[in-house]
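Re: [ENG-882] Designed sequences occasionally contain unexpected residues at chain ends

Forwarding the minimal case from QA. Structure tokens:
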């Protein structure tokens, strides 16, 4: 256990943290309703004072990235943010960014607006150090997400951006940066270039990486080249969601978000340990996203972080939640599978498996059931046809036999 934390929030009693989050929730619901026109409609009829528990929160609709994009496109002529921003252009919105789609994100004026200083501290960065920032500064907010956190810590930042590998090596040598932030794959490219040039980088000892998967094989390769790399999970909409510590055992949730793991295609929370979609409510009053579906899969990791941080941990990125699949020319969505399963109280979990070769698609809905009454499979098959307009087989399986990987639709077709 370490005694070096970013602040006292990281070691709060879990019950105290939960009380604080839930006490702040009604105010954030009201902020979203009154200051963000899109949420005034999404949360129409909701009484903020009633949303004081996770159970109450789970009854509110999930807003997914695809819906945010659709509303931004629909309202672009009058409001490029689709009614989700609670601030207007001017001094309170110093920057605007664009993510692929195109989705526009505002940046407010708050210090450490994206809350990444906590992740940088956990990665070993300290005041007075130079951070070599190789996230893009062009259109997307990634560069600013890391730079703002580094500035909040008292660090100086070299705006390296991406590309120009040989010049990146030169800057690392000349400026003697203590740490790198950027994607892990680009860090590998830089280290390979330095080796090719026979240029040692003795001051570069740590890295905070994000933006893509960070498998153990790549982590070990970077470690072997003298750089201790940890990762964080952040998005352009939410800022920091979770961060890795020196223990490298899961990612600790940020103190400024309320995270739920829900069954893909629904807003229903799953038990701790089960893989599902990451849904986040932020307490950012400038961009008050309530139950924002990230589209990413993860699960809650049991136990406490060995460093002594007391917040919950997630396993990290485990895939994408949007498993929409085209079957015989028709799109089948995870929400449709959830709709079918919800009509039968006996069904605990459902997984649609699509098999066959190209042009010969076959669907089987596998159900974990608490007992299978006579005629259940036939009734579920009728419901499949009603909901999806496609025929599908039904198979009841034993409880807990379906894989815990967050998949509601498994595409097992052969395309050879």
């Amino acid at each position: 256990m370490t005694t070096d934390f970013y602040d006292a929030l990281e070691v709060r009693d879990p019950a105290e943290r939960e009380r604080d989050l839930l006490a702040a929730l009604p105010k954030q619901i009201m902020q979203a309703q009154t200051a963000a026109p899109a949420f005034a409609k999404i949360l129409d009829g909701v009484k903020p004072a009633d949303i004081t528990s996770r159970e109450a929160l789970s009854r509110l609709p999930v807003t997914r990235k695809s819906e945010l994009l659709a509303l931004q496109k629909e309202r672009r002529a009058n409001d490029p943010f689709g009614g989700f921003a609670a601030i207007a252009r001017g001094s309170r919105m110093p920057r605007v960014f664009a993510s692929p789609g195109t989705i526009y994100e505002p940046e407010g004026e708050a210090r450490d607006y994206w809350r990444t200083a906590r992740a940088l501290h956990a990665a070993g960065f300290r005041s007075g150090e130079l951070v070599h920032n190789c996230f893009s500064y062009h259109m997307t907010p990634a560069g600013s997400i890391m730079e703002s956190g580094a500035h909040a810590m008292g660090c100086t930042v070299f705006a390296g951006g991406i590309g120009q590998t040989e010049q990146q090596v030169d800057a690392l040598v000349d400026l003697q940066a203590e740490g790198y932030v950027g994607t892990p794959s680009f860090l590998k490219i830089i280290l390979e270039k330095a080796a090719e040039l026979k240029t040692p980088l003795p001051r570069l000892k740590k890295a905070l990486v994000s933006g893509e998967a960070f498998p153990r094989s790549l982590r070990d390769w970077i470690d072997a080249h003298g750089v201790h790399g940890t990762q964080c999970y952040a998005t352009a909409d939410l800022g920091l969601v979770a961060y890795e510590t020196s223990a490298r055992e899961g990612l600790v949730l940020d103190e400024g978000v309320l995270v739920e793991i829900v069954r893909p295609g629904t807003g229903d929370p799953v038990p701790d340990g089960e893989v599902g979609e990451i849904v986040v409510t932020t307490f950012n009053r400038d961009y008050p996203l309530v139950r924002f579906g990230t589209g990413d899969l993860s699960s809650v990791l049991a136990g406490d972080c060995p460093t002594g941080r007391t917040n919950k941990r997630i396993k990290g990125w485990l895939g994408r939640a949007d498993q929409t699949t085209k079957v015989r020319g028709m799109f089948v969505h995870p929400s449709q599978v959830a709709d079918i399963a919800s009509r039968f109280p006996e069904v605990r979990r459902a997984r649609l498996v699509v098999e066959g070769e190209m042009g010969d698609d076959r669907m089987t809905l596998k159900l974990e059931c608490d007992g299978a009454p006579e005629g259940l499979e036939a009734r579920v098959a009728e419901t499949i046809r009603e909901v999806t307009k496609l025929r599908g087989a039904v198979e009841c399986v034993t409880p807990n036999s379906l894989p815990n990987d967050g998949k509601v639709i498994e595409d097992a077709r052969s395309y050879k």
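QA comment: On inspection the terminal residues look reasonable. The two ends are 51 Å apart (CA to CA). Proposing we downgrade this to a documentation issue.
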